[in-house]
Structure formats: structure tokens, C-alpha cells
Amino acid sequence: MIELLRFDFMQRALIAALLVGLAAPAIGTFMVQRRLALLGDGIGHVALTGVALGFLTDTAPVLTAVVVSVAGAVAIELVRERGRTGGDVALALLFYGGIAGGVLLISLAPGRGNSTLMSYLFGSISSVTVEDVWVIAVLAAAVLGVVLFFGRELYVLCQDEEVAKASGLPVRFLSLLIAVTAALTVVIAMRVVGLLLVSALMVVPVATSQQFTRSFRSTMLLSMLFGMAATLGGLTSSFYVKVPPGAIIVIVALGGFVLALGLGRFVRRSRPQESIP
Amino acid sequence: MNGGQVTLDRRPVLRGIDLTIEPGEAVAVLGANGSGKSTLIRALLGLRPLSGGTTLLYGTPPARFREWRRIGYVPQRLSVGGGVPTTIREVVASGRIARQRRFRPTGAADRRATDRALEAVGMAHRAADPVQALSGGQQQRVLIARALAGEPDTFVMDEPTAGVDHESRQLLADTLGRLIGQGRTVLLVAHELGPLEPLITRAVVLRDGCVCHDGPPPHAVGTHALPGHDHVHPHADETPLSPLDWRPTS
Predict the structure, then answer these.
(1) How do residues B44-70 score in pLDDT, each as one tens digit?
(2) Which of A59, A62, A181, B210 is 20 to 30 A from residue A211's alpha carbon, by CA?
């Protein structure tokens, strides 16, 4: 582990991984509670078009990805709010459009081959630049800031939208806030886990920590811990076995979930029985 | 509400309702399943858009209403959403949201109000348990505690007695009795009143999206007094009061 830190690219990747592991489950807890677990996937697909636009126009792909994925997230949220019927079809159209547009534009960009595409789809540790680390740090701070300052209101919204409305909360603003925060998280995570696996980091650590916890707050905190453990563990292994980090991070996270399923049952059984009058 | 109309999927659910709740009243909305009771109180609060007519909360349209802290809404059931565990205390404490400022942490007053609300419904000893482990009646008590924690003037409750065990129902009646004694306004939807009956000062009976009775609670007689009887027939001998008549506005 120590010798890894001698490589500059590895230091950058590890910082990025830590921030991703921290931020993704934090907003992910709200998304799971709101039954939006797949929102991250949708935004990930759309973000690919953003990355491709960056290549084509020679601007930093991280920045174009932020712009396009935030726009995509807002569009998804508006579609979701609008309709019961046809909503999921509209979302699906957006997902396909995102991937197709991304692949198309990347192929058009000069000098970008399949390896670049792969590195965005499934992550790559050698590609994290100093600039990326800064952008990731700022975005992660923004995501955690949102969770910290709006957490109380988001909790009510994710619990019951009508109660949120009847409490005078700005429901539409908060819904958009969740979508935009998810979009920022996707961009943070894209370098490390890749766009196609981003959503796993928002969902799997939450599912894992649910096995042990009783409160919303502890679920969120524990999932952040699990998230960091998965990204660090996966990234370190990917240095040795030369596989895309995204794949191995997600496998580590899923392995943790399976372990937790068994352990959680054991923990609950050894707890004093809840009194049910 | 004035001439309130609501259409769901192009099917009229409320067809011109005129209803004013005065401060301090304890009003029960009665009616059969599908008569539009829940829709009525949602529409009153602006949670359901009206397809005709207007509704005012303390004289203000819902879109411009700012004093939501004065209203405590108790939904029909506790929604568990995506199933993230959450404790009873977290749910009850979230009832303070309309009184809290953004960027300001939860204060001692919030914690005291939460404690009082938990005590009032007899759930203080279970505050750290996840709500997912509760029975229907206990979840209902948690929902009412959440509204209590916000210390509103008006309670709007959607079927607080549905699917609730006898003990919880009695506790609910006691709690409501205290609130009414303090001069709070209560508007509730019910299928049958049960132990709440002596507390109710006015009953509004809905039928097919219209008010068919508005006045003192109809006393159950004969077969109507049997438990589980739905009080849905129009009271032909009591002429409906004029402003609360069925009056389509368009």
C-alpha cells in the first residue's frame, strides 16, 4: 500500500477515489429512499455525450460533462414530475440518446480511439490529472454541502412528497436539487468508476449499510464508510491486476453487500428482541 | 373552498364543493370509499390541483401561502419509500421542518417539542426503533406525533382511524380531545367515527363528489349504529344549508 503512494498518478487516483466513495453514497441514500436508484444510471448515460462534446471542442471533458449531465438531470426530473404514463419511456429515450450521441461524437473526434471511450465508461486510474482532482474536490464539497444544509428538507421530501408540500417546502426546487447533485456526483465518479458503473456507488453501499442500521442518519454515515472502503480497496487491487478500476470497485462493493446480508441477519438476531405490545 | 372541483384522469371526483372550516371547529368528513373524502382534504390544502373553483388557506391561495407551520397534515399512511431504515424519533422530529430555518441546526426547542409529541402518543420508549417494525396503529401514532411536533393550529388528518387497533384508537381520541380543548381546529376524514364521535362538532358527508350533509354529526340509530356502518346516505329530512349546497360552478 505504501509503495503505491510513490506514484503521482496513484496519489491523484486515491484522492479522487476517496472523495467519490464519500460523496456518492451520501446523496445515494436520499435517492434510494426516493426510489430513484436508477437516476444515476440515466445521468451517466447522458454524461457520455458531455464527455464526447469536450473531446470534439477541445475543452476539458469534465467541464462539458458537468454541463450536459446537469441539463440531462433537470430534463429527467421534469419528465418524471410531468407524467405518470410515458415517463419511463421518455427516460429510456434520453438514456439511449446519451450513449448513442456520446459514442458517435467520440468517434468523430480526431485521435480518440476505443481506449479513451473505455476509460470513461469503466474508469481509469492513470488518466486522473491534477486538474481533475481539483474539479472533483470542489464538486465533492458541493455535494456534501447540499447534504449538510438541505439534508433535513430532503429527508422530508424523500419520505413523503405530499407532507413536504403541506410543510411548505419548495418541493420542485428540492427535487431539482437532488437531480443536479446526482449529476455532479456522476461527474466526480466518472474518472474512477466510469460512467456505466457510477450508479453502483450511489446504491450498493446504501443497500449494504441498511443491513446493520436502524436510523436514516446512521445508514448514510455507514454507507459513506462502505463507499470509501470499496473505492480504496478496488482501486488498490486494480493497480496490481491491471483491470478497469470501475469493474473491480463495484465487485468489491457487491462482495461487501453479500457479506453484510449474512452478517446483518446475525447482528439482528443477537440484538434484544424489540418489544411489540 | 368555493365551488371546488377536482378531476382525476378526466373523471370528476369533486363536483363543486363549498366548504369553510372555522377556527376551533372539529369537522369530520364522512362518506363511502371513492366518495372523494381524501381528495377533498388534499384539494383544500392545495396538494391536488383544482380543475375549477378556488381554495384558500387562512385567506391565502395555497401557492402563496407562507404559514404552513399553522397546518399539520397527517397522511393516510406512513410511506416507507425506498426502505432506508429510519427511527421513530427521526420521523417525529421531521414534523418541526416548517418551523425550522434552513442553515440552522436543530435546537433545544425542537428537541423538546419532539419529546412532548412522542410522549403524547405513548411512543417515547420506542423512539430509537425503526418505523418499519411498527404495526399499522403504531405507525398512525407516529404520524400524528409528527404533526404534533410542529405545534400547528389546524390538524388535517386523512383516515387516522383506518386499520388502527382499539388501544391506538382510544389514544387518538384522547389526544384529539386535548387538542380540541386547547382550541385547535381539526379536520379529519373518517370511515366511521367510533370513539371520536363525541368530539366532532360538525360532520360533512360526501356522496359522489358532492356534499350531501353538513351540520351536526348524524347520530347513528338502528342498524346505522352497528359498528362498521358507512354513513353515506343523504339525510332527506335535514335540508342542506344553503351555502353548502351542491352548486356546480361551470
Answers:
(1) 888 877 777 777 888 777 787 788 888
(2) A181
Distance of CA A256 to the CA centre of its chain: 17
Cβ within 8 Å, pair B97-A159? no
Integer angstrom CA distances of residue A216 from A92, A208, B149:
30, 13, 19
Number of Cβ atoms within 10 Å of the Cβ of A121: 22
Task: Check B81 against A216: CB less than 8 A apart.
Answer: no
Task: Flag residues of chain A having pLDDT under 70.
Answer: 1-2, 83-87, 111-114, 270-277
Question: Would you tell me which residues 62-91 of chain B have a C-beta closer than 8 angstroms to some C-beta of chain A?
Answer: 65-69, 71, 73, 75, 78-79, 81-87, 89-91
C-alpha distances in Å from residue A72, one per residue of A20, A108, A153, A187: 21, 22, 23, 12
Closest in A163, A206, A210 to B75, CB measured: A163
Is the full-model pTM beyond 0.95?
Answer: no
Residue-wise over A225-259: b if at least 16 C-beta within 10 A, else e?
bbbbbbbbbbbbebbeeeebbbbbbbbbbeebbee
Of B90, B146, B156, Cβ closest to residue A216: B90
Which of A32, A165, A167 is best to mutate for the B interface (most B CBs within 10 A)? Answer: A167
C-alpha grid cell, residue B202: 360538525
* ipTM here: 0.80
Give the contacts of B238 (CB within 8 A, at least 6 positions apart): B213, B215
Q: How many CB atoms lie within 10 A of CB B67?
A: 13
- Please check the confidence at residue B250 and state whether its pLDDT lies above 50: no
Distance (Å, whole) CA A204 – CA A260: 11
* CA terminus-to-terminus distance, chain B: 15
- Out of A34, A166, A217, the one facing B82 most closely (by C-beta) is A34
